[in-house]
Every structure is written in C-alpha cells, then in structure tokens.
Amino acid sequence: MSGLNMRWLLVSLGGVLLLAGLWLLLGVYQSGHTLSAVGGLVVMAASSWVFLSPKAYAYRYLYPGVAAVLVFIVFPAVYTAGIGFTNYSSTNLLSFDRVTAYMLSETTTADGAGMAFSLHQAGDQYRLKLSDEAGQSWVSPPVKLEDNKPQQLQLQALGTENLPEKESIKTVIAKQPALKALRLTFPNQAQSWRLNSLSQFSPTQLLYQKNADGTLLNTQDGSLIKPNFKTGFYETAAGENLIPGFKVNVGFSNFTRIFASDDFQGPMFKILGWTVLFAFLTVVFTFVVGMVLAVVLNWEALRFRGVYRTLLFLPYAVPGFISILVFRGLFNESFGEINMVLNGLFGLRPAWFSDPFNAKAMILIVNTWLGYPYIMLLCSGLIKSIPSDLYEASAINGAGPLTNLFKITLPLILKPMMPLLIASFAFNFNNFVLISLLTDGRPDFIDSKVPAGTTDILVSYTYRLAFQDSGQNFGLAAAISTVIFALVAVLSLINLKLTRVNQEEKR
Q1: Could you tell me which residue, 83 or 44, shows the higher pLDDT?
Q2: What one-character DSSP code corresponds to residue 405?
Q3: How many domains does the chain contain in total?
Q4: Is 119 helix (H, G, I), strand (E, B) or coil?
Q5: Are residues 236 and 272 in the same domain?
Q6: Cβ atoms within 10 Å, residue 105
Q7: By C-alpha distance, which of 136, 198, 189 is closest to 169?
Q8: SS3 for 120?
Q9: Rounded to whole angstroms, how far apart are CA atoms 2 and 10?
Q10: Does any domain span residue 177?
C-alpha cells in the first residue's frame, strides 16, 4: 500500500472516529449532562489539534499520558470532591428541573366511572375496544404493543364494524407494560384515559399544576407544595418531604458531620485509628517476616534454597481474593481447620469473626501472609547488592549473624526500602478487598447509628455508607473519600521526598 493511500486511510479512520465521538457527545448533552458533554468536546478538540496540526508534533508523545492523568485521576478526584459538597443520595439523585418535570407528569384518577376494555388483534397490531355501562363502544386505531413508549391514541365510535375475537387474559398480561403507556382520548375531550386494571381504563388528570411563583398546586385537594433548596425536597405545608428529592449544594455540611456529628464522630475516629494501626502493623509485620526470610534464603550454606524460594513465593503467585476466601474458610469458627487444630492442641476455639480483637488479629495474619513475599523479593535483591567485603570484615572482628543483621544488613536496606514501605502503607490504607471479603467490616459497633464495624477501615466504611445504608448517602461518602484522598496525597508527597533524598545521597 502506497504512502498516499495509507494517509487517506488514516484520515478516513480519524474522520469516522471524530463523527462517532460527536454523536456520542450529542447523546450525552441530550441526556442532560451538559458539563460532561462540554468536557468531552474540549478533550476531542485538543486531541484533534495535537494529532492533526504540524505545530503540535512535539506534544504527540506527551499528550496521551497527560490526557490519561486528567481523565482517569484528576477528573474523578475533582468530581468526587464536588459531590462531597452536595446532598447527593438515593433520595436526591435528580436535578431540580427533572424533579419538577416528574412532579408535573404525575397523574391521578379523575372523577368518573371507568370503562371495560378488550384487546383485539389486527394483523401484527392490536386494537382496543372500550365499552360503557350503556353498551356504547369506542375503538382505537391499530397500534403495535412492542415497546413501553408513551403513545396518544384517538378513539372513535364503533359502528357496524366487526372486530376479531378478544384476546385472552394471558395476552393482556403479556402486553400490560405497553398498555400502561397508552393515553386514550375521546372525540372533543381533552381528558386522557389510562389502564387502571387488567380489564378497565379510567379517566386521569395531572396531579400538579405549576404556579407563577414556582409552587405546585395539587389539583385534588388544592394544597400547595414548594421547593426547599436547603433540604432538596418539595415540601407540603406541614413540612413533609416528597420523594424524589433533588440535588442541592450543602457547602461543608458533609465534612462537618464527619468530625462534629455525634452519630459519625464516634465510629469515624475509631475507624480512622484502626485504619492507621492496620496499615502500620501490616507494613511492620510484612517487612519483618519478608526481611528475615530473605536473610535466611541468602545463607549460602542453606540446602534446597530454590525449593524454599518457590514455596515461599506461592502466596504472591495466587490471586489475592482467592487466598482471602480460602482463609475465610480456614478461620471458620465451627468448621475451620485452624480452630480444629487449636482445639486439638490447646482446647481453644477463638471467635475469629464475632470478637473484635480476634477479628483484627485474623486480618493482620491474612494480610501478612499476602504481603510478605513482595517484601521478601525486594529485600533479597537489596541484600545481593551489599558488598561481601563488609561481612568478611565483620567476621574477622568476631561478629555473629545477629550483629551482621542489625549493624550491616538492616541499615543498608532500610533507606532504599523506606519509599516502598510508605507506598505499602498507602496501599493498605485503602485495602478494601481484604476487609470486604474477609470480615465485611464486622462485628459492628453496638452503639453506632450508622453502618460501621470494628474491622472497617475508612474505605470500607465509606462503601457501607454509600451502598448499604438505608439512605445511601453518596455525598457523605464522597466527603469521606476526599479526606482519604488528602491523606494518601500527603503520604505520596512524603514518599517522593524520601525518594529524592535517597537519590541525592547516592550522588
């Protein structure tokens, strides 16, 4: 293929991708997500300029990485922080305009008797027949009952036309979703009729009418409801909130609740303390176990070192979630092998999942098992880089293995390991998978009004608030996530600083 043909092929492919992107952004805009559509349009315009303009040739290799950071890191972080300043929850999902439109579309059964209806097939379509108590009948035009989209049909009086036999109740049940979407009107009447039961249509009317001042008038009882932009609900005169609610800005209310509310303050600080302790002890235990094993495996006189390395590396080779689920079975209080062994040897059957202390100990044991192979590999590589002359000089001076460990090995590997240990601390600070699969944060706090457990860490606590609480408070969960992000960012800065210090020392 010639260079010219290849160029036209690339231009054509780029044009197709550009049109597909514009079509996708149009759909995003029409669905009401204006900011997302504008952001996507900016990214698309920047991408087109970078890859099509000769002036931007130097940026083509840098742009994908920068764009990925902005799209997958910066945007989610900013978006999550923005949600933390709102009342976004399972009851406040929609915008004010969409909630208002929902309220204005609600209907209620109007005064007047319903009419019996029957369904009749007309080829691949159907016709509806409505009959009143006087025996007069009306029939609809043919309609396809294949989807649930709202349709407006004008009825006409049934004359001498003979309709096919009416469909069975089984067919009516199968077509019920499509029948509910129909709006039937009679000649010279504005009132619409809707399906009321499997055998009847009834007249309906709009439940609310919008007033000039923004309040909504209830057409049934004449009462007014008005929007409250502090709580995010339409309220009755008695102060009752009407569902659904709408999103509003609540400022720092969610952040204040985290640190000031009695409902959240107790479990929040307990969970924060356990999160820090869990991450710190995990780093300490994995480092101690991994370093000791690395030192032992680097002992030249040890036989079958290759076999030991392979066996000790297995926990790192097995997917973590599988190991966690296996340990969950091993620690089962009634049938687990660990309790069977402890009971046979010492007569003990610890309550691993119902006792808070035992549950935390179990988590640390499992996480140490999962994390020590990584530290062991790192320490093995660092020990190999230590000059053997140091150990020879130490042997001449009469030093033993423990002296070599604490005076030579540990000081020389601790500095280069420190940034990696801080990174491990940051990872375990958000180790959601371990907590979720092993204990699910339980046992729960007895005195807590919100879903919180003694083995919850901040990220699992956030998950339970967002997806397991009855209110599903996404705004509050986003505020906690923002706090977690800030803590991890501080740890990352410390990590970078330590890395820079180590690099300067090497120079």
Answers
A1: 83
A2: I
A3: 4
A4: strand
A5: no
A6: 11
A7: 198
A8: strand
A9: 12
A10: yes
